[in-house]
Every structure is written in structure tokens, then in C-alpha cells.
Write a structure and sequence with these properties.
The protein is mainly alpha-helical. It has 25 helices and no strands. One of its GO terms (cellular component) is plasma membrane.
Length: 492
């Protein structure tokens, strides 16, 4: 009797209905709301599409309690990221108040030449991300400062964000400290450092090509550097803040904690706390101005406390400078948290109802050659990033689904682990409602629809992985006799 009550597996039409609904609604959201689509319209689109999926699931015999449990479990996956997001909001607020970010902007305006700024930004973020293993931390620190420098030099924030994300994800991808770099070989069954070495075959040409493109953009962009404007901006920064190399200590502490493998949330939270202390020690004049007509103790408590939960607002009369120096706080991340929870709820429902698995089964049926198998894996990783809005799920789910097929065809687990990172990790910031894209947009203040076209590394890497698969370049196979015999039978 119990077998008769089991839910039916979804048909391809069942699986397609909520996805098509989401695509249509997201398109309408962008059409009607433009850059503001991530501030409510996308969330509603995700929730309505989830509701459509639930209706299909109930039709197939699923009950609400099991679906609700899947939604709760899906949201629980985001709680670690939510804590990090809130801590990052506080960090940006206190680092603005302490002069840490303004100091990076100040020195960057003096040192970085506009002609090679984009390439330099990419390299800087790559080095930092490789050192600490976190694209998120890199974007929230070095990335925020580089966006400020770009605005000061009158350069494109969208191209700058593309350079920051390209460099940050390159470093994250090849760093042994990165969570995704450890996750992919664990799922595929390969060894960590062999996985990193094998990734260089696709990663190195991708980042070199991206750097060439950033150099070309920088050299060909019509740039009129107004030294008087830069000098004025630097002067105004110095007037608002006590600019000193000591202001960079919170950054050095955070990088040290990351290198020491301190988990992201406590590391970022400690960085935010140190920023508050540094503001108290080095920015008393600014705190007194922001505190208004209050006594010194009250001003210190209220201004620093506010920086943690609501950021800072600097009013200088210069709108460009105000935009550089204002922002941060936990409240600045609440919309991001809202979008993440909606996106993961939608993805959890699709996975629970078997709709994601249905897509993979259809794709795998047409993957006859090694090239088409790798292309299918890349497509599945990207599709999972689109539907579940989470890069970890885009690694874990395709990895579990394709692992047996890679083994059956005699391919080394390194091929699967590399492909998972080439597509699952790299493409996550390109999907506007993905947690990574929402995060990058939240800290860099650039819409994903604007920066995504300039994330050259993130586009080139998965394309190169597919090309390697079809031409058979650097595709490692297992050498044991049993696998060879299995592979021969499978291809006969």
C-alpha cells in the first residue's frame, strides 16, 4: 500500500513549468524595474515560481509538510552565508568610519594609473584571494576600495567590478584555503593538490586572456585624467579623515586571520570590531562631527554603534565623495538576505520535487562523447546555479549525479572535479539572483546586469573547459585495466 502512495516523478513538462515561469517573471522584472529589480521584484518572481512548482508537486502526490521541510532545510543552507553577510555589512561600516577604506582609496588615487587600472585591479584581487581563499572577503575589502578609486579616476565601475570579480574568483579557485576548492575534489574523489595543479590548464589561459582584455580596454578607453580633480578629492579625503598607514592595520589583521584559516564569520566580525576600535582611536574629529550636539562619550558610543548596524553617512557637499564614503552596516545587507532566502527556497523545492534530477537525466541521455559529457556537466552546473542560486549546490549536485558516469567512461576524477569548479564556482556571480552575484552587487554597489559582461575570466573558463573536452586536450583518463575494458565496452 505504501508504494501506491509514493509521489510520482515529474515529467519534463512538470519540471519545465516553474522554470519557464521564473524566466518570464525575471524578464518582466528587469523590463519594468530595471536596476531595481533585485530590490523586491526578483524576490516576488522567485516566490511565485516556487508556488507554481509546489502546485505541480502537490498534483504529483507530494504533501505540504514534506515540501515545507525541504524549504526550511534549503533556507538553513544560507544561514552561514547570512551571518557572513551581516558581518561584512558591519565591517564596511566600521572600516569607512575608521578610515581604512578611505586610506586605501587615498593611496590608490596616487599610485594607480588609469591606463592599466583594470588589469592591476584584477591582479591585486587575484593575489589577495589566492592568499586568503575567499572571493567574498576580497571583494568586501580590496574590491570596495578599488570601486572607490575607479570613481575617483572617473573610470567605469562596471568594468572595475568585472576586474575585481575575475581576479577574486581566480584566486579563490586555485587557493587550497578555499571552501569550493576543497569541496569539488571531495565530491569527485580526487586529491586536493592534484586538483589544483590540474585546474591550471584551464585557469591560467583564462586569467591571462582576461588580463589582456582588461589591458586593451584600459589602453583604448578615452580617459581624461583631471589631476586637479584627483588632488581635490585626495585633499577632501584628508580633510574628512586622519589618513595614515596605521589605518590599514584592520585589513592586515583580517588577511592574517584568513591565512590562518580562521572561519569567515569570526574573522570578518573581528575585522569589524577592530575597525570600530580604530575609529575610536584615530578618527575622533570625524566622530565628533557626526555626533552632532552631544557630549564626547555619547558621540563615540552612538556613531560607532550606528556604523555596525546602519553604516555611516558622510556629507561633504561633494556628491561623488559622499557616495565613496557613505554606506555599510548590517541593514545594507538585509535586501541581499531577502533575495538569498527566496532563491534558496525555490531551489530547494525544485530539488525536493525531483525536477532538477529530471533535467539532468534528459541531458545525460544525449551525452555520448567525452566532450558532450563535459559540456553537459558545465551546462548542469550553470543550470543549478540558475535554479538553486547557490554555488555549493552547483558543485555538489552535478558532482553526485555525474560521478558514476565519469568512472564508467574511464575518466580520472580530476576531470570531474576540474569541470565542477570551471562551471559551478566560476559562473555563480554571473547569475543576478545567485547568492554570489547578490553579495557582489551588495558590496560593490554595481548591478550584476552591468558588471557580468566584464567578468571575462568567469566567461572564458567554462568555455575553455568545453573546448578541451571536444578536442581531447588534457583530458586525464584512468589507467587501470578494468577501467580500460569498461571504457572499451562502453564505446564499442
Amino acid at each position: 500500500m505504501s508504494e501506491l502512495n509514493l509521489p510520482k516523478q515529474p515529467s519534463m513538462l512538470d519540471a519545465s513549468i516553474p522554470v519557464i515561469t521564473l524566466i518570464c517573471l525575471l524578464t518582466l522584472a528587469v523590463f519594468y524595474f530595471g536596476d531595481n529589480s533585485s530590490y523586491g521584484p526578483n524576490q516576488i518572481a522567485l516566490l511565485i515560481s516556487m508556488g507554481v512548482a509546489i502546485i505541480v508537486g502537490v498534483k504529483n502526490g507530494h504533501n505540504w509538510h514534506s515540501i515545507e521541510k525541504a524549504i526550511v532545510n534549503g533556507i538553513s543552507l544560507s544561514l552561514g552565508a547570512v551571518l557572513i553577510l551581516l558581518a561584512v555589512g558591519s565591517l564596511i561600516g566600521t572600516w569607512l568610519l575608521s578610515g581604512t577604506v578611505p586610506t586605501m582609496i587615498y593611496y590608490g588615487l596616487q599610485l594607480l594609473n588609469p591606463s592599466w587600472f583594470y588589469a592591476a585591479a584584477c591582479v591585486m584581487c587575484a593575489i589577495v584571494s589566492m592568499s586568503i581563499g575567499s572571493s567574498w572577503t576580497t571583494a568586501a575589502t580590496i574590491g570596495v576600495a578599488l570601486i572607490g578609486i575607479a570613481q575617483g579616476l572617473d573610470l567605469s565601475p562596471a568594468v572595475t567590478a568585472g576586474a575585481v570579480i575575475s581576479g577574486a574568483y581566480f584566486g579563490d579557485k586555485i587557493s587550497p584555503l578555499s571552501e569550493t576548492t576543497n569541496l569539488a575534489p571531495a565530491i569527485a574523489g580526487s586529491e586536493l593538490f592534484a586538483h589544483i595543479r590540474y585546474m591550471f590548464w584551464t585557469t591560467a589561459p583564462s586569467i591571462v586572456t582576461a588580463l589582456v582584455l582588461f589591458i586593451i580596454i584600459g589602453l583604448n578607453e578615452t580617459i581624461t585624467v583631471n589631476n586637479d580633480s584627483i588632488d581635490l578629492l585626495s585633499q577632501q579625503l584628508a580633510e574628512q579623515f586622519n589618513i595614515s598607514v596605521f589605518n590599514l592595520v584592520p585589513l592586515l589583521v583580517l588577511l592574517t586571520l584568513a591565512i590562518k584559516k580562521v572561519p569567515a564569520f569570526p574573522a570578518v566580525a573581528i575585522g569589524a570590531l577592530i575597525g570600530g576600535v580604530w575609529a575610536l582611536v584615530f578618527q575622533q574629529e570625524l566622530i565628533v562631527r557626526l555626533g552632532g550636539n552631544t557630549d564626547l562619550i555619547t558621540a563615540n558610543v552612538k556613531v560607532i554603534w550606528t556604523a555596525f548596524f546602519d553604516g555611516v553617512v558622510i556629507e561633504t557637499g561633494n556628491s561623488q565623495l559622499d557616495s565613496l564614503l557613505s554606506g555599510g552596516g548590517m541593514s545594507s545587507m538585509l535586501n541581499t538576505v531577502w533575495l538569498i532566502m527566496c532563491a534558496l527556497s525555490f531551489g530547494a523545492v525544485l530539488e525536493h520535487l525531483g525536477m532538477l534530477k529530471k533535467f539532468v537525466e534528459v541531458i545525460l541521455a544525449s551525452a555520448k562523447s567525452t566532450g558532450s559529457l563535459i559540456a553537459s556537466t558545465v551546462a548542469t552546473c550553470i543550470g543549478t546555479n540558475i535554479l538553486t542560486a547557490d554555488q555549493y549546490m552547483a558543485i555538489v549536485m552535478p558532482g553526485r549525479m555525474y560521478k558514476e558516469e565519469y568512472e564508467r567512461r574511464g575518466l580520472d576524477p580530476l576531470v570531474l572535479s576540474r569541470t565542477l569548479e570551471d562551471a559551478g564556482t566560476i559562473t555563480s556571480p554571473l547569475i543576478p539572483w545567485n547568492t554570489c552575484a547578490v553579495y557582489m552587487s551588495g558590496v560593490l554597489l554595481v548591478n550584476p546586469l552591468d558588471y557580468m559582461f566584464y567578468c571575462f575570466f568567469n566567461w572564458i573558463n567554462p568555455i575553455l573547459a568545453v573546448i578541451y573536452g571536444f578536442i581531447g586536450f588534457n583530458i586525464k583518463t584512468l589507467t587501470n585495466k578494468t577501467t580500460k575494458e569498461t571504457t572499451h565496452k562502453a564505446t564499442a
